[in-house]
Specification:
Shape: globular
Number of strands: 38
Number of helices: 11
Radius of gyration: 27 Å
Bound molecules: alpha-D-galactopyranose
Helix content: 10-25%
Strand content: 25-35%
Oligomer: single chain
Length: 722
């Protein structure tokens, strides 16, 4: 990190292991991004020849088409801004001047803090850049403070901008819906704007706050330049990619300005969620690995960062709302015999919950289903050598609940609008202190009275009628943000009292994974769609943003409850092994053969788990394009690797496919060691495995493999000591 100058203007050079960012102060006080990309070895920055593109002489003052790091409404520019506010005197533009710059250190990491001020109104804007050199990422923050005498109405405050020079670019984002989350989608950016966002109040299944930008047509999974970013925010968010009139690219990301408003009273401050951004020259996979490492080392709750996630069983698809002690104990016996380490009961154990019409809000054990309390089941589960976990949906309430009957005004609502129901439930307004206190108390009581090792925190509906009638009129729109802060606060309080608790975030399937919730939750329910072929696409997309140790996958029954399709049990296991293995079928109905296969698969997973959960991930062939597909995990010391291959559909005329491995030590010898390798162990060198690869499904008997459906295999290779 150095303070430097560009054409005589103050500038700052931020360097990570392989990337560099050069910022400078523009003539009108705007923050220019003169370089963002590969580290070219420059120590002062001026070797990057920072010459911002210029507009025609009569428009010389305009910053349109000039890459900016934090565009503000008030800069001489018409691009999508990060910041906009209205001052008490009616002024609607912000003019910032640099107050000071500080190069410092936080936990041993270099930081750059740039303080700007609108001197007329006393609005202070502090931009923070925290440099994680080894992770090749920069964490950006924005803090506003009203040092003036009058309130400021903040209309938008995004977390940061990335300005790239004129060129053609592609954007990669994650999209879907319930049952089909996280599909990796790319498009060529054309003049105009492409927006990906959530207005649903939470992160959403439809889109995820992660993006990657690459030079048009040049970047693949393995090769090419990628600029990427991810927001630490679980509420409404937006990412706008704007191709300006000269083909420069302006990407801004942060809290969605849709229906947003913030009243910043004199002396008050507001901090926007962090934007984590980085650059990789190793394709989408390279960018993913950087994010995975950052999540593992920096974002995830420290307590469980390095612990291997347990193999879990969840009884939701087996018993749905009919959660009773005896049948659950029976399921627990079978789960334990399979090698499961954590037994989880899902929706249905609490309040008057027999279906989705009642009970949400009353986090007390249902006495009819558990006449002796939860202790009876927990003792049985612990006695079988497993941990015990439970499902909650704390932000939600059914009108048919004691909580709602006592506090009908605790929900988001407008007094003269009928609420829109989803799954018969409404949303508790966590912006309210009394709501948070009530729910926290209920959850703490549950956790204090029962030995609970794991909480699955669900959230099954989007926000509608997001009104907060009891708040002052000028603060109504703060509900969107204050609710999310409220959820974070409750989770933090729970973690503080129960530091060992493992928490899984879920939102009607995979609707809440982001770097905000992942600071408070250890793992993520990826999708309610557990069908193996669909799941390959979901997991492929998810794994481009989030680490394998967070991705929970269940093996469930056939025909699949979501798609009706049937895949063999072995295939279902091999797909679910990609992240954190879970089992979610009605194992009471599984045959002795199924149970035995499950036992073997769980044992096999436990052997590869450290490599899958803590290794480096490489997609060798993408699902969805051309079967077969394959993913590889490599241990940090490159001493072992796991290759998982899948062929959903066979096809006549297709030859046997090979996949070239990645990330190995070329000079070391590796031997295939999984049981399917048999006695005649195959050996090769890392160099050869990366050059020529290995054939998929070579060990299957019967020939003609490329015409068979539902083939899968998990190969393990380990270095041979010479
Ligand atoms: C959501 C979750 C499921 C399950 C149900 C229970 O849909 O994604 O896994 O917990 O709620 O109602």
């Amino acid at each position: 990190m150095v303070r430097t100058s560009c054409e005589g203007r103050p500038a700052w050079l931020l360097r990570t292991r392989d990337a560099a960012m050069l910022l400078s102060l523009g003539p009108s006080g705007a923050l220019l991004m003169d370089h963002g990309g590969a580290d070219g070895g420059s120590e002062r920055g001026d070797e990057y020849l920072p010459r911002p593109p210029r507009n025609r002489p009569s428009h010389r003052e305009f910053l349109d088409g000039v890459p900016l790091a934090y565009p503000v409404h008030g800069d001489p520019s018409f691009k999508e801004p990060c910041l906009a506010a209205v001052f008490a005197d009616g002024t609607r533009t912000i003019r910032l001047g640099l107050r000071d710059d500080q190069i410092g250190e936080q936990d041993g990491r270099p930081t750059l803090t740039l303080s700007f001020e609108d001197p007329v109104h006393g609005l202070i804007v502090v931009l923070g850049f925290e440099v994680f050199a080894e992770h090749d990422v920069i964490r950006r923050t924005v803090r506003l403070r009203n040092a003036g005498e009058a309130p400021v109405r903040v209309e938008r405050i995004l977390s940061g901008g990335i300005g790239l020079p004129p060129a053609r670019y592609d954007a990669w984002t994650l999209h879907g819906q319930w049952g089909g989350e996280y599909h990796l989608t790319s498009r060529a950016l054309a003049p105009g704007k492409f927006t990906t966002e959530s207005r649903r109040g939470f992160t959403s299944q439809e889109a995820n706050p992660w993006f990657a930008i690459s030079p048009a047509g040049e970047t693949t999974e393995q090769f090419g330049q990628v600029w990427f970013g991810a927001l630490a925010w679980s509420g409404n968010w937006t990412i706008v990619c704007e191709v300006e009139r000269n083909d420069a690219l302006n990407v801004v990301a942060g809290i969605n300005p849709f229906d947003f408003g913030w009243q910043l009273a004199p002396g008050e401050a507001f901090e926007a969620p962090a934007l984590v951004c980085g650059y990789s020259a190793a394709g989408l996979g390279g960018a993913a690995r950087l994010l995975h490492r950052f999540e593992a080392d920096v974002v995830l709750p420290a307590r469980h960062r390095e612990t291997l996630r347990p193999v879990l069983y969840n009884s939701w698809e087996a018993t749905h709302f009919d959660v009773r002690v005896e049948p659950q104990i029976e399921l627990a016996r079978r789960a334990a015999a399979m090698g499961v380490e954590l037994f989880v009961i899902d929706d249905g154990w609490f309040g008057a919950r027999d279906d989705d019409t009642a009970g949400l809000g009353d986090w007390v054990v249902n006495p009819r289903k558990f006449p002796n309390g939860l202790g009876e089941l927990i003792d049985a589960v612990n006695g079988l050598g497993m941990q015990f976990g439970i499902w909650v949906e704390p932000e939600m309430v059914n009108p048919d609940s004691d909580l709602f009957r006592a506090h009908p005004d605790w929900i988001f609502h407008f007094s003269n609008r009928e609420p829109t129901f989803v799954r018969n439930q409404l949303i508790l307004n966590f912006a309210r202190e009394d709501v948070r206190a009530n729910i926290l108390e209920q959850l703490l009581k549950l956790l204090r009275e029962n030995r609970i090792d794991f909480l699955k925190w669900d959230h099954n509906r989007p926000y509608t009628e997001a009104g907060w009638p009891s708040a002052p009129p000028e603060r109504q729109r703060e509900a969107w943000v204050r609710h999310v802060w409220g959820v974070y606060e409750v989770l933090r309080a729970i973690r503080a009292e129960f530091p060992d608790l493992l928490i899984e975030t879920c939102a009607g399937g995979g609707g809440r994974a982001d770097l905000g919730i992942l600071a408070l939750a250890d793992q993520v329910w990826t999708s309610d769609n557990t069908e193996a072929a669909d799941r390959l696409l979901i997991q492929h997309g998810y794994s481009h943003a989030y680490a394998a140790r967070t991705m929970v996958n269940w093996v469930t029954d056939v025909p699949n409850q979501q798609t009706g399709r049937e895949a063999p049990l072995g295939f279902r296991f091999d797909v679910a092994m990609q992240g954190v293995l879970g089992i979610g079928g009605d194992i009471a109905a599984w045959t002795a053969e199924d149970l035995e296969l499950a036992r073997l698969k769980v044992a096999a997973y436990k052997r590869i788990r450290p490599i899958v959960q803590h290794g480096n991930q490489y997609w060798l062939a993408d699902p969805g394009r051309d079967d077969p597909c394959a993913v590889q995990y490599v241990a940090a010391d490159r001493g072992s690797t796991v290759v998982m291959g899948y062929q959903v559909r066979g096809r006549v005329g297709r030859g046997a496919r090979r996949v070239r491995l990645r990330g190995l030590d070329p000079s070391r010898r590796y031997r295939r060691t999984d049981p399917a390798a048999g006695a005649s162990a195959v050996e090769s060198t890392g160099g050869a495995l990366m050059a020529a690869g290995l054939p998929l499904f070579a060990e299957e008997p019967g020939g003609n493999l490329h015409v068979r459906d539902w083939l899968s295999e998990v190969q393990v290779w380990e270095t041979v000591e010479e």
